[in-house]
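Protocol step 6 of 9: fold each sequence in the batch and record its structure tokens directly after the sequence line. For illustration, a two-sequence batch is reproduced in full.

Sequence one:
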Amino acid sequence: MKKYIILITLLYSIMGVGQVKNKYELIDKQIMNIPVNLNNSTEDIANYIKSTFKNEDDKIRAVYYWTVSNITYDIENMFAVNFNESAHDKIEKTLKSRKGVCVNYAEVFNEIANKVGIRSFVIEGFTKQNGFTDYISHAWCCAKIDGKWCVFDPTWGSGIVTGGKFVKKINNYYFKTDPSKIITSHMPFDYMWQFLNYPITNQEFYNGNFVVNKSKPYFDFDAEIEKYISLSYIDQLTSSADRIEKNGVKNAMIFDRLFYKRNEAEILRFNEIVSLYNDGINELNAFITFRNNQFKPNVSDEELKKLIDSPKTKLTKSKELLENLSKISKTNQSNIASLATGVNQTLNQVEEQFLFVEKYLGKSKMGRKTMFTKVSFFGVPVN
């Protein structure tokens, strides 16, 4: 399945923000003294950080400083994006080349942070520089430090592009930035990652309207993030897509991201239904084999009933999920219709077997022996 993730942008001009006084000089020096042989994997880097620094604030500083110091923005390949590349592959390539675009910086930061025991996520969105809203998507990070969500942009924090060249210039403004401040330049596609109780809309971002509007419904982002984390990946995609759409589809970047999430959720849900359907068919055929063997070796009546209840439950569930999917799908209608036909036919067959078992269980031992006739297998699992 193709997966395309938002990818590229960089700070093309010096932001109109002052450098934050660096109170982390000692930590920075310590992380730069990491042994060379430990610089080639996020596991080794994380282990060094955990063994050297004790509190979350020091650890996340070490993660940030390692990332911004050791990766150079890859100007030559900023548009050469492999949409099928996994996060693991992005990280491996970046560690080997020491180059990358925004998503490479973000993935490296995110993985090291999580491996040192800090809850971190990659944020996808778009940006504004000098009053101009960029037309290229961007990726940055967030992490919860001492109970508070902070924002990190290791790409913008690593340097600037000037005259077509990347100049390393570490900027501490993008380290542990307050969400209420960075929202003026960084707009997440999903407003949950604004970390604001009164999130701004995409239109407000375009208009430069960042005034807190308490007439809006209160948004408990902490509770919503915890809820989001507890969801399955498919439900995470769906809930995120709902928030993206709710906040206004104001540009092609938002549209593309929304389409991706909806489409991936739909494909994964369809595959989940196919898997459930296949399991139901296989269990039904196993039951038919057992019936053709006159329910031998012997099992209890309770076990026998379970043998037909299980495929019936799975096939019924697959039908319910398929009906819900058909209400929202626009791109997979033919596949859904074809699968629905198979599910309905199989459910008819499983119902026949279910009724046979009920009748069988209602008879005496002698009566049961007279019931058996050969039954053909049903259905072929879907690839």
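Sequence two, same batch, same settings:
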Amino acid sequence: MPLVIYKMDDQLIVAKDACPHRGVPLSLGKNDGQGVVCRYHGLRFGSEGKCNRIPAHPQHKISDRFHLRTYASVEKYGLIWCSLTAAQNAEPTIPRVPFWDDAEYQQLVCPKTNIQRFAGRQIEGFMM
């Protein structure tokens, strides 16, 4: 499932990459500092994936149906990890990398690539 990732202050937000209004990929939009803005109708999604602006109806109360489905996520070891099954406010279970902060070891972060496989297979491919 394609995801969109953005930051609000120190909060990392990972959500399905589709505007709940018309399904346009939010990754085509931009982060204006107050959230990720959908390129199609300008809806903006801020903290916790909540819609905080509908330009066509600025005076209306925003329905919960316009909020994004977000996923538990954490930034660690130079990567962003998320869980599609854990509660949004939970921290995903990630592998422990015991020597990551040890200066005696070299830290490797794989370059961005999409090989349509799970993270373990991607890391294995870059370590060979």
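Proceed to step 7 once all outputs are recorded. Observation for sequence two: The chain has a mean pLDDT of 88.
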